[in-house]
Amino acid sequence: MDQTARRPIVRWLSGPTVKERMDAHGGGGPGFDLLRIALSLLVILLHSFHTAYGVPASDFLATGWSHPIWAATLPVFFGLSGFLVCGSALRSRSLRVFLTFRALRIFPALAVEISLSALILGPLLTTLPWQSYFTDARFLRYFGNIVGWIHFELPGVFEQNPSQGIVNRSLWTLHPELLCYVMMAGLMWFGFVYSRWKVTVLWLLATAVLGAYNLFTGRFELIGIYPGQVLVYYFLTGLVVFHWRDRIVVNPWLFALSVIGSYVLALIPQTTFIALPLANVYIMLYLGMMKLPRVAFLQNGDYSYGLYLYAFPIQQAIVEFLPNARSWLVVFCLAVPITFCVALFSWHVIEKPTLKLKRFVQNAPKPIPSVTEPSAA
After folding, report:
1. Do 138 and 130 meet the contact criterion of CB atoms below 8 Å apart?
2. By the 8 A CB rule, do 101 and 92 touch?
3. d(Cα 151, Cα 155) in Å, to the nearest integer?
4. Are the CB atoms for 109 and 345 separated by under 8 Å?
5. Does residue 288 contact residue 80 with C-beta atoms inside 8 Å?
6. What's the DSSP call for residue 158?
7. CB 154 within 8 A of CB 142
8. Which residue, 35, 21, 312, is CA-closest to 173?
9. 133-to-94, 147, 310, 325 alpha-carbon distances in Å
10. 3-state SS of the chain: helix, strand, coil percent to 5?
């Protein structure tokens, strides 16, 4: 098919496709690195309200003009994850490789963070005698976080903070994240992920079923933050848009329309699965395809996971040590540089060396088949 035949008829909605932009930058989006950092900083900002005032950031901001922005942060994160993970799966075309890569990316750094919290942070800050701390069942249960058995408490830790007894609130997203990878493994096992049309039909079915369920129950309406099921749906949306990357154009007018549409739709009931996800994911794509100024300090590694893992316990520690300066601004301004330092350590000492183990399971690199080829249809 002639490449120009795919372009929109209306001139002002034309532009390079996402695939063309990615091909011009070695197969990736030039803005994705900074986008991940920006999203991580937004999460830290949200948790600054939570830790400083003892109420979820979603409740604190629920009636404000900025609430749709905060509410979109995690869904966009999961949409980005689905987009990138789909590319990785299509390159390897191996379930064994995919699962090994995901395990190497998630569990070593997670195990270190959980161990540091339980074995160093906890004993230093607990109000209990060490013997009572180490023999408390909550101490042992906390290690269950390493395998997705989520627990937020360590005995006697942060019990006087506004966000009482919570060591790491961020860990709640591990459940939907692991569910995304289970879903992805199933799609690879049955071969669905390699077909644009099968993934698209699956997404349409999910949209119809979840939308109908939400219509009758309101279970997935935006009240504070979205539940985990919506995050998984955004991950699936990321898979779909990756498959259609050769038809999606990078256009500033579409970006502006998506920004406005996303904000307005977030204020309207029953839009969780209607247009809003596509608007949010297009915003993600557009920013990811932008050639943003290079910031060497931020782009010499993937620090977003370290920021996610360590920010909340660091914020809780700041609140505990500075009880007379409990404001979201103080917590945010102190937490960001401290967490960046820890994230740098995590990346260069734990995550990057661990990811080098990929070479032992790496298949010969395979190009991602064009979506116009029979093998991808």
Report:
1. no
2. yes
3. 11
4. no
5. yes
6. S
7. yes
8. 312
9. 44, 22, 22, 28
10. 70, 0, 30
| pLDDT given at position 103 | 93
Yes or no: say if 258 and 284 are a contact pair by the CB < 8 Å rule.
Answer: no
User: pLDDT value at position 59?
Assistant: 61
pLDDT of the residue at 1: 45
Which has the closest alpha carbon to 98: 239, 299, 268? 239
Q: What is the mean pLDDT of each run of 10 residues along the chain (377 residues)?
A: 48 80 86 90 91 72 72 92 93 90 94 97 95 95 93 95 94 94 94 94 96 89 82 96 94 94 89 91 94 72 92 96 88 96 95 88 56 35
The amino acid present at 336, given as its one-letter code, is: V
Q: CA–CA separation, 312 vs 297, rounded Å?
A: 22
Distance from C-alpha of 334 to C-alpha of 275, rounded to nearest angstrom: 38
Two structure tokens written together for 280: 């949010």
- pLDDT at residue 168, rounded to an integer: 96
The pLDDT value recorded for residue 29 is 83
Distance, in Å, from the CA atom of 244 to the CA atom of 30, rounded to the nearest integer, reads 19
One-letter amino acid identity for 52?
A: A
Q: Which residues on neighbouring strands pair with residue 17, listed in sequence order?
A: 249
* Residue 287, pLDDT score: 94
Instruction: Give yes or no for a contact between 289 and 250, defined as CB atoms under 8 angstroms apart.
Output: yes
Three-class secondary structure of residue 104 per DSSP? helix
What length is written for the chain?
A: 377
Both structure tokens of 35: 């986008």
pLDDT at 71: 84
SS3 265: helix
pLDDT at 363: 58
Q: Locate tokens 């942070």: which residue?
A: 121
Opening angle at CA 216, ends 213 and 218, nearest 5: 80
Q: Helix axis angle, 95-116 relative to 304-321, nearest 10°? A: 20
Please return the burial class of 365, using the count of CB atoms within 10 Å of its CB with bins 0-12, 13-18 and 19+.
exposed
pLDDT score, position 222: 76
Secondary structure class of 70 (helix, strand, coil): helix
Please give the pLDDT value at position 8: 44
Q: Nearest 5°: CA angle at 71, between 246 and 60? A: 165
